[in-house]
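User:
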Amino acid sequence: PEDDPLLTAAFRRGQEELLFYRSGVTVYTNSGLTAAGDSQTAAQAQRRAEAFLSRHGGRADLQLLALSPYRRQGTYLVEFCQSWEGQPLVGASGAVLVVTPAGVESCWRRQLTVFGESGSRRSVITAESALLTLALERPRPEATPLTVKEISLGYYNEIYNADQWEASPVWRIWVGGDTNFYINAYTGELEAE
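Assistant: Predicted structure:
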C-alpha cells in the first residue's frame, strides 16, 4: 500500500492495519483473527459492528442500511449509511464492516460534511417509476429475475476527485446481498449499480 499515491498514512500493529486515503476513506483490516466457531446471528454481528464503530470514531449519524450473510458461515456484511435531514447518503459514505464470529475483520469508512441544499426544490419521481426504470434498463430481465428487498430515497455520492460536489437524490433499490441499483430521482435514469 505504500506505493499508492492516494494513500496518506498507514499504521500497523501486529496483524491489524489502518490506512488513510486522500479521499477521506479509512480502511481497517485485521488478518489475525482466529476462528471462534461459526455461530453468530445477524443481531450479534450488528451489535459487534455498532460497538466497533462506537469505539473507533463514533456512529452518531450512521444508520443501519443492510445486513447480509457474507462469504463464510457466521460472517456478515454490515453496512451503515450516513444521513442528512433524515435521508440516507448512499454510495460512497458511511461504513461497511465484515464481522466474523471472532470479531471485525475489516471496516471501510468515509464521513462526508454536508453543507446543505443547492438550487430550488424540485419534484422527484415515484418509487414505482424508479422500479419501472430498472425493469426497462436491464437487458433480458427474464434471464436473471430480481427480487426487490427494499427501496428507499436518499442522496447518491461516489468517491470524486473533488473537495465539493452535489449529490443527486436517488431511489436505492436493494435486491439482496451487496447488490444495489441507484435511480436518479430527478431524471429517472440509472445512476449506478
